[in-house]
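tmp note - PASTA domain-containing protein
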Amino acid sequence: MSLRKFLTSKTFFIQLAIALVSLLILSFLLLKFLDFRTNHGEEIEVPDLSKMQVQAAIEKIDELGLELILLDTVDFRKDMPPFSIVEQDPKAAIKVKDGRKIYVKVNAGEFMDVTLPALKDKTFRQVSANIKALGLNEGKITYKEHIAKDVVLEVSQNGKRLKAGDKVKKNSTLDFVLGDGKELYSADTFEEESSTPTQPETETPVEDAAQ
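out:
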């Protein structure tokens, strides 16, 4: 049988139809297999990653067909383990499609350093606002005899005196010594000094310029 006759024969068309049907069946089965392997089209519940270490979270997310993206490290939170996940987006229990990116932020390992500004010789009201803005805490307050009331005379931490430019950990507690606003001298001392007789001044004779 010549090639032309074979290409126009009934046998050729039957074999071609069988091949096309087989190809369609294989394609359909392959797509179903991929859907099964990747959960294609199914919604996945986002797990709660809070307090998990990053590596453990990555493994858990990968198992679900999702992707973990680390955004940033946040200031240390003492209520969370160091280097653990503190924020995630989308939140836990949200339904997402497979392949969705889960964005997370991680807790720092410790409190960050804070540089102390100039606090001495300022009123405690000013200083109190400054240290709160820096994330520091007010500790013990004592008073010392000084003419200016509530002016900061000393700043210390755990007994160590601090100055402008020193570094402390955020959330540290600072102790202050303030002026009590009392006079430097007592009234008795002032009266005693006032009652002390003073020597009269003697005039020095001026010589006649003509001599």
